[in-house]
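Problem 12. The chain below contains 345 residues. Write out its predicted structure in token notation.
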Amino acid sequence: MSDTSAINSSPSDRRTALAGDDHAGWRLDRFLAATLPDFSRSRLQQLLDAGAVSLGAKTIKDANHRVKPGQEYALNVPPTAPALPQGQDIPLDVVYEDNDLIVINKPAGLVVHPAAGNLDGTLVNALIAHCGADKLAIGGEARPGIVHRLDKDTSGLLVAAKTERAMASLAKQFANHTIERAYNAVVWGSPRDASGLIESQIGRSPFDRKRMTVLRAGGKRAATRYKVIEKFGSPGQVESGRAFASLIECRLETGRTHQIRVHLTHLGHPLIGDPQYGRSRTPPRGKSDAETHAFTVAANFSRQALHAFVLGFQHPSLHKTLRFEAPWPADFAELVTALRGLNKS
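Solution.
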């Protein structure tokens, strides 16, 4: 009969993990992730790199170190260092909050975490002020609590973790693609098929490192399911497949950088207002006031027309599925309302 692993925790947050027969030959990082489920893989890698894991008097930093039965590994978790960002009193639209996590309806224009060019005024700064720096799980020095991101000018739902357990659980759900995420997008024109799966490899553009692109080789697999919800244009345009614009629902099977923006551009229908993957449009002269208004609003829309309106996941402690929906922000609703005027012209 194989031994079972034993895990202990002390007030100083020194963890120990005893390897059983079943763990023979396991990589150290895999063993620690299995026996210390409160920590995400990325957090354990950080602790390994920092020299926080030891076997007897020997510090082990090699994640590929092979485990032997009967070995007891110690993990000395350092006190949570103050987050590099400072708390800032930035209003938050809190959709849900408990001791484990917080769900925010992020407005367009708010950067998720500090980075070059955006050292403060971010969602992280707001979360630190709202929750307290010591109430957010470690997601990286400048990213406390952050499990996933939305682009600066994408609005909608985002979840942040307050505990290591929540961070590990949510990170695993994102990695396993079991998180429900649905977006509304307004695009130029209308896809030929009313619904479909866009599947490709996505990676950095070899011509512009700030852009992502569909690659023939390399990159990472990306899959987006889309469905046309509404087409905008005169009856003749819509019936002939030449709609001026369309409202689309997208659901992510993977979560790559700029995935929806890249995929819809690849399909030939970039997001209205997208400064990176779309192109500027001069509004045509309308035949009516409604047409002129719709064309002008669309051409002058100041961001990519993308809103994360559904977020669903398994709660790490309550063991039940939570699902949230966020209404369209005012600018998105105004765009759709103006475009609907085309259908009446």
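Discussion. The longest strand covers residues 220-232. Students who got a different answer should revisit the alignment rule from Section 12.3.
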